[in-house]
C-alpha cells in the first residue's frame, strides 16, 4: 500500500495568457477560448490574447511588453487538457462526479444503518465515505495550492498500485466476516471498550485528514506526491505552520488516518496489517527522502530535523 508526498516540486510550464505582473506563487488557471461574437453587454466582449499584441493598461502610458525571451518551452501544451491527457478536463470532472455520487450514497446509508436499523454494518459505508472524502481532498488541495500539478493522477485513485485497493477491500471484508460470523460480546466491559475504540478511531481519522490537508496547503508549490531526487528552482524548505511541529505531517496524517479507520471498523487482523505495512512504508520513504533533503539544504535541514518530530512511533 502506498501513500505519500514529498516537499519537492518540478515546475510545469504555464500558459502566458496574461501579461499583468504576478506575485510569487500565483498561477493562472487555464481559460477556454472566448467567443468572438459581440454581445450587447460591453463587459462581456473579449478579444483572444495574442502574445504579440500590446494591451495598454487603463492609463495608457505603459510600453509594449517585451516578448523576445518567450519560447515555445514556456507554453502549455493544449493537448494535456484534452481527453486522455495528463490534465484532461473530462477525466477530472468524471472522477469528481463519481466520487461525489459515492460519497452521497454511502453517507446516506451510514446514517440509515446507524439510526434506523441500528446495525454495526454502518461502519462499512462510513469507511467508504471517508475514502471518498480523502481522495477528493487530495485533488482539491493540489488544485487550490499547487495548481500546476492538478492533474488526473492527483486524486490518487489508481496511483498507489493494487496493494492499496487490496488493503481497503480486505478491511471491508473483515468487517463483514466479523459481523456475520462473530456475535458481538455481551460483556459490559468489552462493549464499553468497543465504543471507546470506535470514538478514538474517528478522532484519529479526523485529525489525520486535517493534518494531511493542512500540510498540503502549507507546503503549496513545494508539495509533490512523488519524491524528487534533485532540487528544483524555487524549491524551499518549508518550516512554518504545521511543519513547525511535524517534520512530515502528510505522512503523519495518513498513518493515523489508516489506523483510525481500522479501529472504527473494529478489525483486528487488518489493524495489525495496516500498522506494519504503513510503518514499513513510511520508515523507508522518510529515510530516503531525508537523505535528499540533507543534500539539498545541508545544515539548515539538520537543524530543522533536530527540533521537530515525525509523530509516527519508532521513526525518528
UniProtKB/TrEMBL annotation:
GO terms for cellular component: endoplasmic reticulum membrane
Membrane-topology descriptor: Multi-pass membrane protein
Sequence segments annotated as region (Disordered): 1-76
UniProtKB keywords: Endoplasmic reticulum, Membrane, Methyltransferase, S-adenosyl-L-methionine, Transferase, Transmembrane, Transmembrane helix
Compartment(s) where it occurs, according to its Swiss-Prot or TrEMBL record: Endoplasmic reticulum membrane; Membrane
Ranges of biased composition (kind: Polar residues): 67-76
GO molecular function: protein C-terminal S-isoprenylcysteine carboxyl O-methyltransferase activity
One BP term from GO: methylation
Gene3D superfamilies found in the cross-reference section: 1.20.120.1630
Record's compositionally biased regions (Low complexity): 32-47, 56-66
Record field: transmembrane: 96-117, 124-142, 162-182, 189-211, 254-282
EC number(s) from the headed UniProt entry: 2.1.1.100
One Pfam family here: ICMT
Biased composition (Basic and acidic residues): 12-29
Chief site of localization: endoplasmic reticulum
Enzymatic reactions: [protein]-C-terminal S-[(2E,6E)-farnesyl]-L-cysteine + S-adenosyl-L-methionine = [protein]-C-terminal S-[(2E,6E)-farnesyl]-L-cysteine methyl ester + S-adenosyl-L-homocysteine
EC category name: transferase
Family assignment from sequence similarity: Belongs to the class VI-like SAM-binding methyltransferase superfamily. Isoprenylcysteine carboxyl methyltransferase family.
Identification of the protein by name: Protein-S-isoprenylcysteine O-methyltransferase
Organism: Talaromyces stipitatus (strain ATCC 10500 / CBS 375.48 / QM 6759 / NRRL 1006) (Penicillium stipitatum)
Classification of source organism: Eukaryota, Fungi, Dikarya, Ascomycota, Pezizomycotina
Amino acid at each position: 500500500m502506498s501513500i505519500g508526498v514529498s516537499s519537492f516540486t518540478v515546475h510545469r510550464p504555464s500558459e502566458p495568457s496574461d501579461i499583468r505582473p504576478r506575485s510569487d506563487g500565483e498561477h493562472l488557471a487555464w481559460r477556454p477560448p472566448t467567443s468572438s461574437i459581440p454581445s450587447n453587454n460591453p463587459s462581456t466582449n473579449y478579444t483572444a490574447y495574442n502574445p504579440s499584441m500590446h494591451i495598454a493598461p487603463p492609463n495608457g502610458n505603459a510600453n509594449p511588453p517585451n516578448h523576445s525571451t518567450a519560447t515555445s518551452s514556456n507554453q502549455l501544451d493544449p493537448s494535456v487538457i484534452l481527453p486522455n491527457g495528463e490534465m484532461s478536463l473530462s477525466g477530472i470532472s468524471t472522477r469528481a462526479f463519481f466520487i461525489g455520487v459515492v460519497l452521497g450514497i454511502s453517507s446516506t446509508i451510514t446514517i440509515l444503518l446507524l439510526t434506523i436499523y441500528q446495525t454495526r454494518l454502518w461502519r462499512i459505508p462510513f469507511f467508504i465515505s471517508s475514502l471518498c472524502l480523502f481522495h477528493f481532498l487530495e485533488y482539491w488541495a493540489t488544485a487550490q495550492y499547487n495548481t500546476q500539478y492538478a492533474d488526473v493522477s492527483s486524486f490518487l485513485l489508481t496511483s498507489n498500485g493494487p496493494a492499496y485497493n487490496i488493503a481497503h477491500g480486505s478491511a471491508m471484508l473483515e468487517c463483514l466476516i466479523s459481523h456475520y460470523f462473530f456475535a458481538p460480546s455481551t460483556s459490559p466491559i468489552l462493549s464499553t471498550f468497543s465504543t471507546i475504540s470506535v470514538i478514538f478511531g474517528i478522532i484519529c481519522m479526523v485529525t489525520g485528514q486535517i493534518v494531511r490537508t493542512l500540510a498540503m496547503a502549507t507546503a503549496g508549490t513545494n508539495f509533490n506526491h512523488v519524491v524528487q531526487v534533485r532540487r528544483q528552482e524555487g524549491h524551499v524548505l518549508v518550516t512554518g505552520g504545521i511543519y513547525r511541529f511535524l517534520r512530515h505531517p502528510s505522512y503523519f496524517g495518513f498513518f493515523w488516518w489508516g489506523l483510525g479507520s481500522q479501529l472504527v471498523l473494529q478489525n483486528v487482523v487488518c489493524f495489525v496489517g495496516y500498522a506494519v505495512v504503513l510503518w514499513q512504508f513510511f520508515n523507508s520513504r522518510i529515510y530516503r527522502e531525508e537523505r535528499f533533503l540533507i543534500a539539498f539544504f545541508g545544515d539548515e535541514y539538520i537543524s530543522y530535523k533536530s527540533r521537530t518530530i515525525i509523530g509516527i512511533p519508532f521513526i525518528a
